[in-house]
Amino acid sequence: MTENADDSARLATLLANTRTLLANTRTLLAYIRTALAFAGLGFAVAKFGLNPKTHAAGYLGTFMVLVGLVVAAIGFAQHRIVMREGGAGLQGTCARAGAAHRGGRGLRPGLRAAGQLPRGHRHLSGYRPDLPRGR
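Given the sequence above, the corresponding structure tokens read:
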């Protein structure tokens, strides 16, 4: 009974670490997307300024490109901080998830082979072959 509880706790920890890793990656991608938008808009403003007599559009465009670079740097720094705070738990999650996904088999076979998945949790996707399938 305690072995099954330990397996369930290990699975819950693994899934929580995976969710944290994926959320951290999504946040990094959002920072990169925002940085690219700032930089792209900055280049457009600098290139297609309406008044060629003043250099305000060039200065504004350069400022926006620099803001984009700062946003990207902040995003990368935040990503590294979260990965460092997560320690080996997040790094190991990434390695186990990658190893489990080889061959297109999904996450379950790799977890079962690594001893991370309890025997009673064969159908994590919700599919139960013993129940009728209806629409």
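The mean pLDDT is 76. Try to locate this feature in the token string yourself.
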